[in-house]
């Protein structure tokens, strides 16, 4: 694998790349309705873009309340720690902004991934966009 890096993204300048990744993962693969995927929080969120060389392969976003979401990696790059790098960048940014608690809504199948990053399950299972989820919390020390 060549050089993978994560950088802060600009919702307007990087919009096409951010949308392409999220559409591929959430709308096309997981059948999330487009009206559920896109919300007014995107324009206010801090976005992260994972790239292999200059090719966008993953994204995530951080909201002002410490909520990390929309973590997505294109299928061909899964299992290569791209999601982990995105999460580490989002956690570091949250901590830098004084957000000592980070929380997320995790698809149930991905809870072990988030647990390895220090998150713990804090809710019962529920459906979001027809997919089983749980709320997870991470507290900075």
TrEMBL record:
N-acetyltransferase domain mapped to chain residues: 4-141
Taxonomic superkingdom: Bacteria
Pfam family, one: Acetyltransf_10
Signal peptide: none
Organism: Pseudomonas fluvialis
Keywords: Acyltransferase, Transferase
Protein name: Acetyltransferase
SUPFAM superfamilies for the chain: Acyl-CoA N-acyltransferases (Nat)
């Amino acid at each position: 694998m060549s050089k993978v890096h994560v950088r802060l993204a600009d919702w307007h300048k990087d919009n096409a790349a951010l949308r392409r990744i999220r559409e591929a993962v959430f709308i096309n693969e997981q059948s999330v309705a487009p009206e559920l995927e896109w919300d007014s929080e995107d324009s206010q969120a801090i976005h992260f873009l994972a790239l292999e060389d200059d090719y966008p392969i993953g994204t995530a976003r951080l909201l002002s309340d410490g909520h990390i979401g929309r973590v997505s990696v294109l299928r061909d790059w899964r299992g290569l720690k791209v999601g982990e790098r995105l999460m580490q960048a989002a956690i570091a940014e949250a901590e830098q902004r004084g957000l000592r608690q980070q929380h997320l809504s995790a698809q149930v199948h991905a809870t072990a991934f988030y647990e390895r990053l220090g998150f713990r399950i804090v809710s019962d299972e529920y459906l979001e966009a027809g997919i089983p989820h749980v709320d997870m919390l991470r507290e900075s020390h």
